[in-house]
Design a protein that fits this description.
mainly alpha; Arc Repressor Mutant, subunit A; 3 domains; two-stranded antiparallel ribbon; two-stranded parallel ribbon; 12 helices; 6 strands
């Protein structure tokens, strides 16, 4: 059987041209319409949606919104690349003259939908590049615990141990690759003759993520926090005062079992006592608004200094 040969892919061309931002806005409009079962859009429909997204009311200057004629050219081009299908628009005719006039409506093709989803996946992956990936750290913590249990078993399951080692290798490899990408970003910024303000802001946010830790207020979260903080990171809204504030904010309280013998929080001597007293978990998502506000202010921090936390001189 002959090997499959890769061809040029016109479905992704709209993301590489000079007007890629406009093309991608248009494709997102069609994707949202398809998700809401409101397909078959005319250039006028697309223009109205662009005006709502990019017009002066949305914080963009009016000159950034293309005309209906310009929108028509873009959707015709997307149809030529295979992202949109083109059909005669006969349903909107109000007279014989308008019926005979050539007009089209457009719909997202299966290939166009696949291309849109592929670019969305790429965007999400690029946004995650350079982060510490707290979820991965939690998975590593859980898998290490499972590996210890498997190795201590009276009758060891070799296949289970091998699978856990393979999974751990994959998780560590992903974290290592992410750290390498982060350092590449650092080197590029340091070597740049002129710094772009947006790139610097993103780099600053990534750096803050590396140097500070915030996690779930439960026993695994405490263990991960101890490992990361002992390695040099600083706690970020991860003290006893934050825990008590989180209890008041927590809309989905989850009971905690008794703490394991090795549980500790040396960065805040009162935190372990508070968690033992209440035995309720507080998920890190409870603090998302506060964390985002910290980033917007330029640095992470807490409203109060946790008791027992030693600040560097």
């Amino acid at each position: 059987m002959p090997r499959w040969r890769y061809d040029a892919q016109p479905l992704l061309r709209y993301a590489t041209v000079a007007e890629a931002p406009l093309y991608r806005e248009i494709m997102e409009i069609f994707a949202q319409a398809a998700a809401g079962y409101a397909s078959r859009l005319s250039p006028e429909d697309v223009h109205a949606a662009l005006l709502a997204r990019l017009g002066p009311g949305a914080g963009e200057p009016a000159e950034d919104v293309p005309s209906i004629a310009q929108v028509k050219e873009r959707v015709e081009q997307l149809s030529h690349w295979g992202n949109l299908s083109q059909d005669f628009d006969t349903g909107r005719a109000t007279s014989l003259e308008s019926y005979e006039r050539t007009a089209y409506v457009y719909d997202l093709t299966p290939g166009g939908e696949a291309a849109f989803e592929a670019l969305a996946t790429l965007d999400e992956a690029l946004r995650r590049v350079g982060g510490l990936q707290a979820v991965a750290l939690r998975q590593i913590e859980e898998m290490l615990g499972q590996l210890v249990t498997a190795l201590r078993a009276t009758t060891q399951d070799a296949d289970r141990v091998f699978a856990l080692c393979e999974d751990l290798h994959a998780r560590f490899k992903g974290l290592t690759a992410n750290a390498s990408l982060f350092m590449q970003k650092v080197n590029r910024l340091l070597a740049a003759p002129v710094l772009d303000a947006r790139d610097f802001a993103l780099f600053k946010a990534d750096t803050i993520t590396y140097l500070h830790y915030h996690g779930d207020f439960d026993w695994p979260g405490l263990a991960i926090g101890g490992t990361v903080i002992n390695s040099g990171a600083l706690p970020w809204r991860f003290g006893s005062a934050d825990y008590r504030a989180g209890l008041a904010l927590n809309a989905r309280p989850k009971p905690l079992p008794a703490p394991p013998r090795e549980a500790q929080a040396p960065w805040d001597l009162a935190l372990l006592s508070a968690m033992r007293d209440h035995l309720m978990a507080v998920e890190e998502e409870t603090f998302v608004d506060l964390l985002l506000a910290d980033l917007a202010a330029g640095r992470p921090g807490t409203d109060s200094t946790p008791s027992g936390h030693l600040k560097p001189d």
